[in-house]
Amino acid sequence: MNAKLETGATTRPVTRQTFDDVLVPTYAPAAMVPVRASGLDLWDQNGKHYLDFTSGIAVSSLGHCNPALVAALTAQLNNVWHLGNGYTNEPVLRLALALTEATFADRAFFCNSGAEANEGALKLARKYAHTKFGPHKSRIISCLSSFHGRTLFTVSVGGQPKYTEGFEPLPQEINHIPYNDIDAARAAIGDDVCAVIVEPIQGEGGVIPGDPAYLKALRELCDQTGALLIFDEVQSGVGRTGALYAYMDKGVTPDILTSAKALGNGYPIGAMLTTNEIAAHFGVGSHGTTYGGNPLAATVALNVLETINQPAFLARVKEASDKIFAKLRKLAADYPQVFGEVRGSGLLIGLPVAEAFKGRAKDITKAAEALGLMLLIAGTDVVRFAPALIVTDAQIDEADRILRAAVDGMLNAAPAK
């Protein structure tokens, strides 16, 4: 036995300090440590209750420990966990059928995360272009302030230089243009472009909805140049906007779509969806993953998809969205010195801070957390709301009450000017 491995390692006491002691410091998590959750309710090590309006960054859309998902996963746990890609399995075949039947796609590739889904999409786009047009067609167009993952390829494609600093040299033939700028798109997308990747709603970049006219222009430019249009729906997909995928409400169909986050409700899974013609350029051995599409992940995802992709469920998402937007518009009107104009789509919502609170979005979420409300940020100037899609009217009212109390506390604690 390793001398450093103590007996009882699975039950030894741990605290937030343990993170600082033994984990690579890539995150700065909250002081509290969650230990139990159900729906939108969460409790920390001290038994304190929180209302979770983060859903694990738009992941746990059916709530924590959803009973139907727990039952489905438990049943699969007693059948088969993992096989490797030398074999297929029934859950992944059913999931692929369900996703292709519900979307524009003919084919699905499964992996473990949004970054992997985007990595696969970008590799496929280059493979497709090189085979069909030649290696000169390799340039990738992305948007400034976009986010597409943390692999070296996807972080380079993402339009936020702070995430690439220190990792040079970066992959080449990648250019970034302003989001929602049609003229910039026209100037950038030429015959040497193999792919244009875009979020229908920029999430990490500030919760900025894509203008339908802009997305349609991208579609037209890709059609004209032979480039593939990739929609990154890792955050906006699986019901988050009130449609199964955001493209369905935008009037634009991509060539490749990537999905993750809510697809597994917290169980790691990613998916890349595309057409027969494009998928044919990924032959046997050209791409792969050890765990992608394993029976456990596929079982959870299939049950998530079947629950969310129902007209009544999606209609309720839009209803809940309207209620939160109304609350936040009233909040911004009551506290104009703190907040700007709310924006977003469905239950992916951003509330920018006013000039006097620039750079202080995190301070607001910390104040709310102290009172029992978990929120996100999208950059330093936007408070982000991404509650589970099953959020109730009573929970929306409670979140509004807590956020108002948090803002009042901040304003009362501020020194007089």
Automatic annotation (TrEMBL):
Gene3D superfamilies: Aspartate Aminotransferase, domain 1 (3.90.1150.10), Type I PLP-dependent aspartate aminotransferase-like (Major domain) (3.40.640.10)
CDD domains: OAT_like (cd00610)
Keywords: Amino-acid biosynthesis, Aminotransferase, Arginine biosynthesis, Cytoplasm, Pyridoxal phosphate, Transferase
Cofactor: pyridoxal 5'-phosphate
Top EC class, one word: transferase
An annotated GO BP: L-arginine biosynthetic process
Protein name: Acetylornithine aminotransferase
Residues where N(2)-acetyl-L-ornithine binds: 150, 289
Pathway annotation from the record: Amine and polyamine biosynthesis; ectoine biosynthesis; L-ectoine from L-aspartate 4-semialdehyde: step 1/3; Amino-acid biosynthesis; L-arginine biosynthesis; N(2)-acetyl-L-ornithine from L-glutamate: step 4/4
PANTHER family: AMINOTRANSFERASE CLASS III (PTHR11986), SUCCINYLORNITHINE TRANSAMINASE (PTHR11986:SF113)
EC identifiers of the protein: 2.6.1.11
Binding site for pyridoxal 5'-phosphate: 114-115, 147, 232-235, 290
Cofactor detail note: Binds 1 pyridoxal phosphate per subunit.
Protein family (similarity comment): Belongs to the class-III pyridoxal-phosphate-dependent aminotransferase family. ArgD subfamily.
A GO MF label: identical protein binding
InterPro entries: Ac/SucOrn_transaminase_bac, AcOrn/SuccOrn_fam, Aminotrans_3, Aminotrans_3_PPA_site, Class-III_PLP-dep_AT, PyrdxlP-dep_Trfase, PyrdxlP-dep_Trfase_major, PyrdxlP-dep_Trfase_small
Encoding gene (name): astC
Residues with PTM N6-(pyridoxal phosphate)lysine: 261
Location in the cell: Cytoplasm
Domain of life according to the entry: Bacteria
